[in-house]
Amino acid sequence: xxxxxxxxxxxxxxxxxxxxxxxxxxxxxxxxxxxxxxxxxxxxxxxxxxxxxxxxxxxxxxxxxxxxxxxxxxxxxxxxxxxxxxxxxxxxxxxxxxxxxxxxxxxxxxxxxxxxxxxxxxxxxxxxxxxxxxxxxxxxxxxxxxxxxxxxxxxxxxxxxxxxxxxxxxxxxxxxxxxxxxxxxxxxxxxxxxxxxxxxxxxxxxxxxxxxxxxxxxxxxxxxxxxxxxxxxxxxxxxxxxxxxxxxxxxxxxxxxx
Length: 258
Known about the structure:
Blueprint: H1 7-26, E1 32-36, E2 39-43, E3 48-54, E4 57-63, H2 71-99, H3 102-105, H4 107-141, E5 165-168, E6 171-173, E7 188-192, E8 195-201, H5 203-222, H6 231-237
Helix pairs in contact: 1-2, 1-5, 2-4, 4-5
């Protein structure tokens, strides 16, 4: 029967809820940014935000990954978004069940679900860090490489890939920085001839890591036993003393003595 949550269980539930909230927030925040002096792109789970800077000011537009000619990158973000959304749903469920007292009766089941939530939450940002450069290079060349493999850059063993910004309406902007860019590494910067370009993870990616950390701490706490049970549980554990009255409290009193 569910009991009132103790201090440890309250903290554990809150940690899972905080982690789930952080993971849900990543679905609406930018995960990655490629920025130069004239243009920038921010990658979201659902699409790309493109900003163009010029003498007349800056313009912003939202586009899909296919419109930006980044289908492989878009597929990665769809997978990452599905992973963190699944992890958020599991985390919410685990937090509610722990709060309801299931941690005492179904410990193994809850622990297994919590471990799955941690793994799913961690796989989202890890997948992007490992495979996004190869996917970006594949989009530049029009074919898909194996998972995590970076295509040869400006060598005789294969085609090179360079980064260009698609600004819409058939307009492209090339920073002219050669093979350096998000298609060669997950984080970095380069500068040539007065042009600088930086690329790296954004708020959504780091928040996904934070959600994973909340889950990990929650798993560690859920494996501990409560040191101070609640008053209801303590009362249920007290021995019950039965006071039954006998019809003859002293049965030897009626015996005849010689």
